[in-house]
UniProtKB/TrEMBL annotation:
Gene3D superfamilies referenced in this protein's UniProt entry, alphabetically: P-loop containing nucleotide triphosphate hydrolases
Protein name as catalogued: ABC transporter ATP-binding protein
Domain of life: Archaea
Natural source organism: Acidiplasma cupricumulans
One MF annotation (Gene Ontology) recorded for this entry: ATP hydrolysis activity
Gene Ontology cellular-component annotations: plasma membrane
Amino acid sequence: MDNSIEIENLTKIYGGNIKAVDNVTLKIGRGQVYGLLGQNGAGKTTLIKMLTGILKPTSGTAKIAGFDLNKDALKIRQITGVVPQDFTTDADLSGYENLKLVADLYGVPKKEAEERIETLLNMVDLYDVKNRRVSAYSGGMRKRLELICGLINTPEVLFLDEPTLGLDVTTRSNLWKYIKSIRDEFKITIILTSHYLDEVDALSDRLSIMDHGKIIVSGTSDELKKSLKGDIITLRVKNDSEEKIVENFKDAIEVKKMEMGDIRMKVNNSDVVLPELMKYLASNNISPESISIRKPSLDEVFIEYTGKHIDSEQKDYAKMMGFKQR
């Protein structure tokens, strides 16, 4: 498969020593939906801003559809579309007026722009509200408008930076349908950044996990899940015995204490290990608060390679503020 994007040792340093993106090397095939999965602050948005010419790299380079990031920034802007996290459409204009404005900025001829706008509005079910002010759109409608604004210039590569951030679960899943339609209809490469595990799992042909500016691991979702090789037992105990269990329970392949106090065990067969675990807890007067067993999931993959839950920042904040976690 031809590569639509080739990134080599791309780095962005802020303030002399803060590495927002750290020596990233990556190849992304043409026509793929490629997921960049990571917590807020992992470096995903900074990477996208460099690849679209908004930020200049500190070092390293990349090629987008064959064009060099350091030499052909203007051309790269012409052949890429970007849907940022924040709304960029003008709320005082109609949906149609916003799309016409973007078409004018890209220099799309009038007749071609009108045909393209009509096609895109129909694709995301906004044609009937095209003349309504964007201020009257729901959050989901506005996200759909943002999505097709990124397609006005018929890009070869479309960057979606946290496209469903702030949307409810139902609206998010509906937006996935439109993203899949765009991929199938236009056969373009889509780079999707997200901290939603289910989103990356549902949409991506391949993905990379980012943490502290680095690419930690890459592959298909199935490949990464299969790499864990075993079941996962998550245990929480009542009487501060986590360290004792980590040090002394020997029937697991691996035992770790996680950041929120849970104990995570990787085991070959949970049906065999669970009875032994219960015996160990009883014999050591350790009271379990909760026990869960899961087959490998993308959530477990993220924990395996980063050592934390993808939503641990939110959990830490909630704990600090005294909120209960569900």
